[in-house]
Design a protein that fits this description.
The structure holds two protein chains of two kinds.
Chain A: H1 2-15, H2 22-34, H3 40-51, H4 55-69, H5 74-82, H6 121-126, H7 138-160, E1 168-169, H8 171-178, E2 190-191, E3 199-205, H9 211-225, E4 231-236, E5 240-242, H10 244-247, H11 252-264, H12 272-287, E6 292-297, H13 306-319, E7 322-327, H14 340-345, E8 351-354, H15 358-368
Parallel strand pairs in A: 3-4, 3-6, 6-7, 7-8
Antiparallel strand pairs in A: 1-2, 4-5
Helix pairs in contact in A: 1-2, 2-3, 3-4, 7-9, 7-15, 9-11, 12-13
Chain B: H1 7-16, H2 23-35, E1 39-42, H3 49-60, E2 64-68, H4 75-78, E3 80-82, H5 84-94, H6 101-108, E4 114-116, H7 118-123, E5 130-134, H8 141-153, E6 155-158, E7 162-165, E8 171-176, H9 184-189, E9 191-194, H10 200-210, H11 216-230, H12 240-252, H13 262-268, H14 276-281, H15 284-294
Parallel strand pairs in B: 1-8, 1-9, 2-5, 5-8
Antiparallel strand pairs in B: 3-4, 6-7
Helix pairs in contact in B: 1-2, 1-3, 10-11, 10-12, 11-15
The chains are: A alpha/beta, B alpha/beta.
Chain lengths: 371, 295
Amino acid sequence: MLTERILEFVRLMRANHFRAGLQETIDALRVAECVNVTDPDRLRWGLRALLCSNSADWSRFDPFFEGYWRRFDRRAIELRASGALARFEGADDDRPAAQTSPANATGPQKGDRARGIGASARDATRSDFRLAELNKDTYPLEQWIEQLARRMRKRLLRRHHPRRAGHRIHMRRTLRRSLRYGGLPLELTFQQRRRELPRLVLITDVSRSMNAYSYFFLRFARAIVGGFRDADAFVFHTRLIHVTDLLKERDGHRLKEKLAWIAAGWGGGTRIGESLQSFDRDYARRLVDSRTFVFILSDGYDTGEPELLGEQMRRLKQRARRVIWLNPLLGRPDYAPIAGGMAAALPHLDLFASAHNLESLMKIERTLTAL
Amino acid sequence: MKASPDSQDLVRRLEQAGYIADESLAVTLMLMAQLGRPLLVEGDAGVGKTEIAKALAQVYGCELIRLQCYEGLDVNAAVYEWNYQRQLLAIKMQESENASVADKERHVFSDTYLLKRPLLQAISRPQSPVLLIDEVDRADEEFEAYLLEVLADHQISIPELGTIRATSVPYVVLTSNGTRELSDALRRRCLYYHLDYPSYDKELRIVTRRIPGIEARLAGQIVAFVQRLRGLDLQKRPGTAETLDWAAALVKLNIRSLDTNPDFIADTLVCLLKTREDQAAVTSSETARLLAQSV
């Protein structure tokens, strides 16, 4: 009887995206054997250690346990378990897709675990970010964007990962050193390949015309920056602000407040050219070099001089490895990049792509490898 | 069914080893031994992740083998390395001997010339040690995959020597700070424990246990202050380690209560606030307010 209850509980947890395989099922029974089952707390602690595998799991485990073993509102939990299982199609070809969980909101939810993506994924990937209703759609979107950004970061990194097998003995120096040991190569000298990891810089437009997108782009920026040493994020409207440290805020709610504050508080024109100028003056020397990918996320509506923007883009292009401009308007059928600023910037870009919905972001992720 | 040690008993023994643990942690540690799975501990810096392994080694009365991970950690530093210098000398000395080439080779690639690094040490001891793999997230993904293999099979293959099977299955504790996401496979293999900042009562016990001779009143004030400080919007919240540093500093400075000399106390806050922004954020008036609430 108890065995069945435990098996059923493991199944329930699996349906709710806890990583519980066959081995975990067997071990769950052993846990019940080891701890004193009559003490529900110990059973809870034991199963929690077994079935959780990250801090998000950790914080959502207890309600499930309470609900199942103490029998209030068990039906509701089961209902929740049956939904949200659709696969995130086309997003990921080389890894098996697990499912994302509807409840792992808070906590450091990092990593590019190739998590699948929940119900109605297909529609959601196609719909424009600006159509997303705040608080209703934002939540899953945020999670997907963060996953995607992490995958993108990883793809960039993977290519440049130094090959450890490439370490070779530096023959000449080794022989030179061997002289003092009568020709025996006692001190080996190694040739070491210099590490060359790419550096990422994201510059996000948060002016009023970008209102509908900037919130998502900031989440995107956050996932790129989070836990990654060589990445920096900036926002601009009429002036430029360095937000890397701010985005590293771990507390989900506090971050939300801060992001909302950044994205909403401003207005009154966009000065892309001048913002880039101040970037060039204050940060570019330190952050942008031949291994830097610069992402600019903007609709290109500039109230400043197009010449200035063109000049700044030229300088940026000279410095950086790649300059990538993501423009959400490009996804609209009637848009052409002929507005003064955008047209001036266009010749200096390595990639000009739309970023109005998840699908377009996913497309960029794939093209990045070719750059 | 094996008779399992009582978890409350384990809590007591951990406390004797200087580690104040919740019972839930004790249950997890017991399961770790029973199920033979590694334990992955996560939590903010300074909450005592590493201390778990140290205390556990003391409780089991066994050796603690520590592998500190870093970017670029490779098999040579983690598992084994040949002692090339000795090998070369041996070859030179054997030159005059009449042994066959095969014999010479066997001699040079024998146990004598093998430098055992932590992972190999951990599986070749007569008694099971505690293996602490610290900050596993700092190591590269390739290493993580290798580690997984060792943890699953308890064997290591060395091309020149063959496969070395474990004579002892170590108690493995992994810690992670989240600089990089760990692989699903590793997470699945491990038991998981999330170590949070301690509650007021627990932290008070830790302070009085670790700082002998601290007055109960001061200890209470210190813990209350730090607990309030953690509630502020800081970049790097002070962990238990910082609390202990601060308490030790105050005891050294002969301070008996936090309400005597607020300016002086404010100067000692460098023990708790480790970034410039945080030090700027906690202004003197803020400090005064926190102090007033804590005493």
